[in-house]
Fold these 3 entries.
Entry 1:
Amino acid sequence: MAMSRQDVQKAVAGNHDFRVFDHNQPIAPQFEGIDVVVDHGGLIGTREMADIVAGKLKLWQVLGTGLDHFDTGYWHDLGIPLANCPGTTSGSGLADLAMMYILMLARNYPMAPRALHEGLYNEPLGRDPGNLILGIIGFGASGKDVARRAGPFGFKIQIIDTRDVTDAELREFNLDYVGTPEDTDTVVANADFLSLHLPLTDETKHIIDRRRLALMKPTACLINVARGELVDEAALTDALVKQEIAGAGLDVFAQEPPDLNSSLFTLENVIATYHCAGVTDGTSRRRAAIAAENIDRLANYLAPLNLVP
């Protein structure tokens, strides 16, 4: 968070009056004379703040992409213009972590430290990624960036997306299979690694449920750097405990912060981090640039970009 604030301040402060919100001070006076609020990830804004700025604020700029945790309807009801950052700002960070999980699980890395300390020479057995199938559910910015990273390793790329994939994308990514949401079961069943790159909506919640986990190969691994509730976490834990799937790489969870006493975090076939996939210096600078551009546009009487309908 500090890096994002510093990057926004660097991008904005030279041309505009910039103030940092202080949670220890009264709220209302801090919003007096403010035209734009830059909200880190959409995690700061409260209804009290919205009530204070309604009718006066030109833009509430969220430094994030997903808004499933943000009270979007309340902001819209008050007529507060709301903008977020496109997925391209964090796509590479998400893809890097997803690819790290894929390679670590392919090489059975979770067992490697134990093998080292127990002197188990030539263990654990890894998998050659050549000709393994990587299923990508959601082919937006981060999904494409995973495909870019996985292709040179020899993975066959199968994708699901709601839109029509272009001929140029078919050529660029050498896609082995392209399906619509109705074809999700096919890719889930085919994949050796299944990576999720979707926003959380009513339609995508628990898109990976007990039934779909049962479709996966017992040698397959699930990767989730998007949103925790895309997956039925209890069903996933059961599948991992029973070794009905081979492993998981998880950066997001149904409850955040997660319950670290959950058996999910005791499993050797799970690699877990805590919602850090998009937390990179590049993401921070790109999001700061988006915020700065919108502030400059408003100062020049232009409509802001990336408005949330």
Note: Strands lie at 36-39, 59-62, 82-83, 133-137, 156-160, 177-179, 193-196, 221-224, 247-250, 270-272.
Entry 2:
Amino acid sequence: MVEDIDAKHSIIHLVKAHVEWSAQEPYTVNLRVGKSVGDILNRDYVGLLIKERELRTLGFVLDADDNAAGRYQRCAALFREWFPAIPDRTTVDGVITENSDKRLGIWIMPDNVNAGDIETLLSTLVPENRKALWEAAVRVVREIRQNGSPCRDCHVAKANLFTWLAWQDPPGHAPGTAIRANLLDANAPPAEGFVRWFRRLYEL
């Protein structure tokens, strides 16, 4: 479960850089998109997921926003009903736990520790030869916000990334296609922790 379509395709292309991935259904891993964190972390919905017989492994990738620890605590409180061994706290390696017949994984973007979102992680994948343009995009976003833009603090990472993507050739890549086009480096060290967690969770 992921929060939006950009997160879905970003994760697919991040992981595809490291493992074989089916481009046609059934996909290597079926990534489902929720409408919001509240939609995803809904007790009734989670209960239905866990009852699906064919589902053996459940993964949840959620943005920390302004509080990684708080977001994880909300997850742990919800999932403990079905996964009693879930840790009280997450770690930089993410969480993987099991019950009698299912596995559960939780990753809080960007790194289970810091505030931010998937765009925060993706911004660390900008290659060195594109850093000057990245720094210019960050500067422009900062200046625009100082001059009255309603962009909130929690959306700055997204604004930075999409401004930078708008300046590429061709402009306007989605984050996932930016990874596929090698505008973002899926092999950069900051991606390693997430990819390692994903591969362990789904035994890829």
Note: Residues 118-180 form one domain.
Entry 3:
Amino acid sequence: MTRTALLCSASALMFCAAGTTLAAERARPATHLRGEVHRVIAAVPGAVTLYDQNSDDNGMPIISSNFTDEFDEFDSYGSDDFIVPPGHKWTIKQVEVTGTFSTAGDNGPAESEKVLFYKDSGGLPGKLVAKCDTIEGKDNQGSFAIKLPNSCKVKLKGGQKYWVSVVANINFSCCGEWEWETRNTENGNPAAWENPNGGFGSCRDWDAMTSCIGSYGEGPDFMFALKGEDIVKE
């Protein structure tokens, strides 16, 4: 992986802008040791917690951003897996993630978020199951409680593994980037990451996040929780 620095300093993040022009070099995907994070928890009427690994913060978040200005080549997606227990059927109504805004002092906000669900394919995200785009979740300094709209139904079958991806739609020029907090504990497969347009020179397709990013002290998984309806088959 190319790690040529687009960094203003070792503690800065992936881009180093000169005026409004991005330096014409590659960057490594952003990792940044953060201090305090702000988890957000929001009640959804009639919803229960279906899955929760929104804990054990590692302190090293990873970029998962869809840039709405001219930096599409650096669009990147993080994803993590979970299993719906056999005999259950889940309807996902809300996704909660812990994250942060960062890059050279820019602190958001995001314009909106997108949430995607995939089937598992050999321990990585496979076929797209659902895509819920341009959702304005409840934001607590980069941690989101994202209520899925009725127009985006996410119904998942029991006994199967799925992957969830959360991406912030954000204008880098004004607001930096969004980074998803990693955790120390690994559940299931390691988290995955991709940079489809190749700006980072690594992982145009899904691969293990730590392999794509390199070793910067990040944890193996992302922090997230799922809420919704759980139907148990008799």
Note: Helices lie at 172-175, 209-213.
